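Reviewers of the previous submission asked for a worked example of the structure-prediction workflow described in the proposal, so we include one complete record here. The input consisted solely of the amino acid sequence. No template or homolog information was supplied to the procedure at any stage.
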Amino acid sequence: MSNSTANEVPSATSFAAPAEDESAQSAQAASPGAVILEQSPTASASFADLYPFRRGTPSRPITSWEKFLGHERTGALRNVCEENVLYCAQSLPMVRHMLQALKAAGCPVMLQRHLSCETCQPGNDAGVNHGGYDELHNQVFICSNNAVSVGDVHATLIRGLLGMFEACTARVDYRNVDHLACLEIKQANLTSCNFLNYLSQKFGRLGLAGEHARCVKATARYRLMNARFVDETVAHAAVERVFKQCYQDLEPIGRRCGSAADIELARNEAYLFGHE
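From that input alone, the workflow returned the following structure tokens.
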């Protein structure tokens, strides 16, 4: 995995450009009422503040409590993170599924180039502080000081690789809030909204009918506001506008995986998407 500074990260052109087919263009067409941001969220000062290593900006001084929790052990934490990434890539079916899907789409992942373990601003919010996908450098990054367990790394990898898959296969405008909303809906739909994960969120609630869709909407809105830095009113409107279409998009996993049995079924059905 890469641990170079942002200025040393190779450009996103190491992936072949996706085919400009008619379906991809229509899927990403701007919706009436879509809000266009002045810049991609990953180019913003808020992104650089959360993930200083990404943009070569200095992080804030670490507190005594964070030192006690071990956040200053950057080298050791990065080594553990890289070991967890390798374990996930070699042994865990969902990550292997995503890597095979990217390869089949013409965007093979090189661990040393496309995955990075690095230090971020300390925090416990899995959707914000554990890492993500940086489209400017075409890298999935893991916050080694925050995502410290195999489970943390696994969840962050899946979300990040889904973002990479969308960048590879779709015409995504990262300034278009509708496109960002669709990405967040897809990630929440396929990775974040099993029952226990939902109840652990501040917006979770007990219920049955319609709860998965409510979870996906709530998670997408939350991440738009806190990880994409979109105004609350704009985020809510974008999610509602694109939800029906984007909630039905299950590629490349093929199903919502809430259990080990679902993951195994997704792996067995990979041939349906052309990536065995």
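The chain has one domain: 36-273. We consider this example representative of the routine output the project will generate in years two and three.
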